[in-house]
Amino acid sequence: MKKEEIKKLVSNMTLEEKIGQLTQIRTSYYNNMNTSGTGTKSKLNINNNQKWMIGTVLGKLDAAMMIEIQKEYLKNNRLGIPLLFMHDIIHGFKTIFPIPLALSCSWDEGLVEKTARISAKEGSSSGYQATFSPMVDIVRDPRWGRVIESYGEDTLLNSLFGAAMVRGYQNNDLKEEDTLISCVKHFAAYGAAEGGRDYNTVDISEYRLRNEYFPPYYEAIKAGAKLVMASFNVLNGVPSTVNRWLLREVLRNEWMFDGTVISDWGAVKELIPHGVAEDSKDAAELSLKAGIDIEMSTTAYFEALPELCKDKNMEKLLDEAVEKVLLLKNECGLFEDPYRGVSTEKEKKTLLRSDFRKVAREAASKSMVLLKNSGVLPLESNKKVALVGPYANNKSILGPWSLDGDLNDVVTIYEGIKNKNIIIEAVETTPFSDINEEDISKLMNKVTTSDVVILALGEEEKQSGEAGSVSKISLESSQVKLLERMKELNKPVIVLLVNGRPLDLTNIINKADAILECWFPGTEGGNSVADILVGDYNPSGRLTMSFPNGVGQIPVYYNNLATGRPKDLLVNEKRYKSQYLDIPNEPLFPFGFGIGYSNFEYSGLTFNKNKIKRNEEIKCSIKVTNKGKYRGIETVQLYMRDKVADTSRPVKELINFKQVEINPNEIEIVDFVISEKQLRYWNTENQYKSDDGVFEFTIGKDSSSGAMFEVTLIS
Ligand code: BGC
């Protein structure tokens, strides 16, 4: 359909039909399925006429249902405008990949894109046209349960992986039936909720928004995302839902976003408890004026817009919003084919294909991060193992945002290890908490004949995800007890962690002989764990969120701004510097950290210039040698520091990285080109600019180490 035809269609619509297009309700209003979505499930005040005017729905579906609902809908919709189906397809649809935070630890853009491509193929085959993903909120507080959905604490990584997800979903051509419209969320800065408590206040200077929080949304939009979700939170006093600066000035005017904007679940009416709207009328007016095109899961628009649109200016805003929704439907070809090629046969052939499972296994292996290894890993083939803990043989390893994953398809850790023909002397799946002394003693008797104990510990799925904020981020005390008692047997103990956030591992770090962070690894999780345990995969994951040295450090992240009293420089000063008196400043495991079975040595740093002008480039390189016995992937990280700027700048910023796969005893030269553009930041004059002066660059294996050189930028 052409743009003019859409305008014409809008002009033929009644006021109520227009409002219907702007209202999103649950799919269950049409299929009576009890959807396991999010948010409060209060019944909406939608009458039977309005039901056939609704523009978009969200919630569970399959191909047969979609066909049935669309058929019925089109019979009843006066103008024959098809319904658009949206859903939370976050890290896989039927084939579940690791949680996004885990995926980011692969540092592999191509792989991340592949997972989204598969999600789009699967999701679209079941009747969806849009997914509420990616979430590119920067996260620095592991108490917040939704860190599982982000790509971590770094701006560059969220930008790269967010854009990769958009490309994977939309594949540059939404007319293709196997694509999904991508919705970037949650605009803006939802991840900075005070105290890590979900839905809580966010207060961030424009300086930090522009330099740290905005770029990932912008890059996802540049990659083509057609939908943006406003966040629940108050941003600097104004809820995003009614934040005209955010939604109109920044998003529309500056970034030239011409897609559609949706509220988060119930957020329009939540303006009342937020204290910025008196009633539904107020909420509807403020939201439409701010630029919310679709109201998700409340009906303030239905209730108030008929009255409000007596005002010509409001009616104009209404028409613009309706156009945006119709354009979205047009974008994905719904007007040409309201079913978008969906059939039950195609669905059956598409879901959980064996090649999709292969990618899930690769993704899970590449996402896991080996945090400690005193030499017990990889396991020698003749060793007898005992497998104990809440995740020993537990299918619930998909993660809290895998709404459509089927537990029957999951490979558990036990099944994965069994596939490797390892002798398993004992398997005990224990409760998450409340393991008493007696049970532990019984368990100890069962493991006496094994050579190694593998403890599969972690958090329950419900402990993270939306509304999954917690104040304690260490393992349950009974799991720690289990580890302590197992250690008494004088056997090596390997800890596998299945969880959704960086944990406080201070109370187990010295007790375990090896620790593998497995995250919620998805459908193929058990196979990937086993691949790593036996050395079929050499662990290559690197952290994208720091693991704190105690909750008292939170937020702790690698790219904090420089202070006037830096602890590491004031070596002779005992007290008056930026530090904690009782714990170190450094996290337990820094951003970028991860070990493997090879030892990669860095040497021979080179760089071509120590002074550059703005039109020149810096070329630098480093030699990486695999000194180990295993072929492996190394992630070479390039950081910079702007030493004298207009404002205080981060002590380190990731500006590039490269992955190289190297055979034992072989060398790779890894080179980078740095351009002036990478040195820019949002300054006090509200411009993205670089400053003349000294820049420090570090090439290393994580954010806490590396080879350093300086270059001066001159005009
Ligand atoms: C979440 C969104 C999600 C939406 C729809 C909300 O509660 O914040 O991320 O996309 O529900 O399920």
UniProtKB/TrEMBL annotation:
Keywords: Glycosidase, Hydrolase, Signal
PROSITE patterns, sorted: GLYCOSYL_HYDROL_F3
Any one GO MF annotation of this record: beta-glucosidase activity
Protein's name in the database: beta-glucosidase
Keyword Membrane among UniProt keywords: no
One of the GO biological process terms: glucan catabolic process
Sequence ranges assigned to domain Fibronectin type III-like in this UniProt record: 634-703
EC number, UniProt record: 3.2.1.21
SUPFAM superfamilies (alphabetical): (Trans)glycosidases, Beta-D-glucan exohydrolase, C-terminal domain
Family: Belongs to the glycosyl hydrolase 3 family.
Reactions catalysed, as given in the entry: Hydrolysis of terminal, non-reducing beta-D-glucosyl residues with release of beta-D-glucose
Cited Pfam families: Fn3-like (PF14310), Glyco_hydro_3 (PF00933), Glyco_hydro_3_C (PF01915)
